[in-house]
Design a protein that fits this description.
Helix content is 43%, strand content 17%. The chain is α+β, with helices and mostly antiparallel strands. The chain has a domain at 335-468: Immunoglobulins (Immunoglobulin-like, Sandwich), CATH 2.60.40.10. The chain binds iron/sulfur cluster (2 copies). The site of one iron/sulfur cluster (SF4) has 14 residues, from helix 12 and helix 13.
Length: 476
């Protein structure tokens, strides 16, 4: 009788461990999954992030990062890579278990199947279950594909996209106001609809058939995370010391939808996603015996009773912080206008009807409004006498994200300067905020000297710096 009340550990002739209730882990994981899914769905709609591929820009917290702003792209990657690598090294595939929407959607189906296998007679028929799973998969796949698309198109495109899709679904010819779309919007709507179709079909197949098979065998992000996971990362540990207390019920292994037996060194398997379900399951088995389960999470390794992490895991956060400071500094000094000057090509010269009609004295200036709002810009030159300068337009209004090309002709006869190689700069400055400006520099050769001496004509360009401009005019 006494033996019946003894704990499993004591039955196994070992000292009982302290009672531990870790069922909160299941609740916490659910909230993480719901929270991440809600965040993922909300981010593009509340303006946190938007990838505007047609205009080559990313809008991040209201700031635009242009994909041709190489420095910013490097800085963003410089922050993201160490942050993610640090997480993989320390926590393994924890993203898969606690946040990935694929796992979340699939676990809903797992729950349904458990419920259908129980006392509910309505779904004992396999065909009925399949119908329910298929309807669920089609619906969730469409909604998720729609959310993914909203990361890549503007709200205007998304609006037309939605109307066009539903019009198609109900057999109509498209929204009545379709003519309102300009060609660029029309192209974006067409591409986003195609993309949604592909994603919709792929996700439907994934949820209705592949489910956890995808996570176990194909997911490239899962493989990528596993590459960085090392033996010190967060992992499930089987209590070898009390292994004889294991009643070999096999529930932990059956609970694992990733097909891992947590008693057999799950830290060595690629598949463990640190969801913790096996730990909670084993706790439930032992709860009846007032003992904690035999499985637990561990990280690092115990050295003289203290948990030690390998030194290498401290490196990614340090790199992240260092690059993060540079990123914030760059964002604070960001100029939302871009200007670049180049000599015109022969064909441009023929098409544009330039005053000078010479590639040596005609330039093309690329101006981009990288700001989030429309702006008026004035163009001027530094380092060259004003009577010699002729812009195709010296003022320009650009809507947010718009770029334009303006031509500059220089009359060599009016350049009364002693030098033959004249360095000058073009300044593009906002008329609404003088602090917003861009400079670019080029060289102008007087034509006769050029031909006589065979001097090269390639313009010298570099990133615009105010102090680099010739100083014969007052800087802004
Ligand atoms: S072994 Fe445990 S923690 Fe790892 S995936 Fe399976 S159930 Fe989750
Ligand atoms: S759930 Fe616990 S007791 Fe059951 S087999 Fe797994 S480790 Fe052993």
């Amino acid at each position: 009788m006494a033996a019946m009340h003894a704990s499993a550990y004591e039955t196994a002739g070992q000292k009982s461990k302290t009672k531990l209730d870790r069922s909160w882990m299941s609740q916490a994981r659910r909230w993480f999954q719901i929270g991440f899914l809600a965040l993922f769905c909300a981010m593009p709609f509340v303006g946190v992030i938007q990838f505007d591929i047609p205009h080559w820009r990313v809008v991040l917290f209201g700031q635009q990062i242009w994909l041709n702003d190489i420095l910013f792209i490097y800085l963003v990657w410089g922050m993201m890579v160490p942050l993610l690598v640090g997480v993989y090294m320390l926590l393994g595939r924890v993203f898969c278990g606690w946040m990935c929407p694929q796992t979340t959607f699939t676990e809903v189906i797992d729950k349904f199947l458990i419920w259908a296998n129980g006392s509910n007679k309505l779904f004992h028929s396999v065909a009925r279950r399949r119908v329910v799973i298929f309807i669920y998969s089609v619906t969730v796949a469409w909604l998720f594909a729609f959310v993914v698309i909203s990361y890549f198109v503007t709200p205007e495109v998304l609006w037309f996209h939605t109307k066009t899709f539903w019009a198609w679904l109900w057999g109509l010819n498209g929204p009545k106001d379709r003519h309102v779309m300009n060609y660029e919007v029309y192209q974006a709507v067409r591409d986003s609809l195609r993309f949604q179709w592909v994603l919709w079909i792929a996700l439907t197949i994934d949820l209705s058939w592949a489910r956890h098979r995808w996570c176990r065998m194909f997911c490239p992000y899962g493989i990528w995370q596993s590459i960085f996971r090392n033996r010190h990362a967060l992992r499930v540990r089987f209590d070898e010391e009390h292994s004889s207390a294991c009643i070999d019920c096999g529930l932990c292994e059956r609970q694992c939808f990733m097909g891992v037996d947590p008693r057999k060194q799950p830290e060595l398997t690629f598949n463990c996603i640190n969801c913790g379900d096996c730990i909670v399951t084993c706790d439930r088995v032992f709860k009846k015996r007032s003992d904690p389960g035999l499985l637990s999470f561990v990280v690092g390794e115990k050295v003289e009773g203290k948990t030690r992490l390998p030194k290498v895991v401290y490196l990614p956060p340090l790199v992240f912080l260092g690059v993060g400071v540079l990123f914030v500094y760059s964002m604070m000094n960001y100029q939302p206008v871009f200007a670049s000057i180049n000599r015109v090509t022969e064909s441009e010269l023929a098409n544009q009807g330039h005053v000078q009609e010479s590639v040596y004295s005609s330039f093309a200036i690329e101006v981009v409004n990288k700001g989030r709002s429309d702006d008026d810009f004035a163009l001027s030159t530094l380092g060259i006498p004003q009577p010699a300068v002729h812009f195709s337009q010296d003022r320009v209004h650009l809507v947010a994200g718009e770029r334009t090309r303006i031509y500059l002709d220089i009359d060599p006869d009016k350049v009364n300067l002693p030098q033959t190689n004249v360095q000058f700069a073009v300044r593009v400055q906002s008329e609404n905020d003088p602090g917003i400006y861009a400079l670019d520099r080029a060289s102008f050769f007087k034509e006769g000297v050029l031909e006589g001496q065979g001097v090269g004509v390639s313009p010298q360009r570099h990133q615009p710096q105010l102090e680099d401009a010739p100083q014969d005019e007052e800087d802004p």
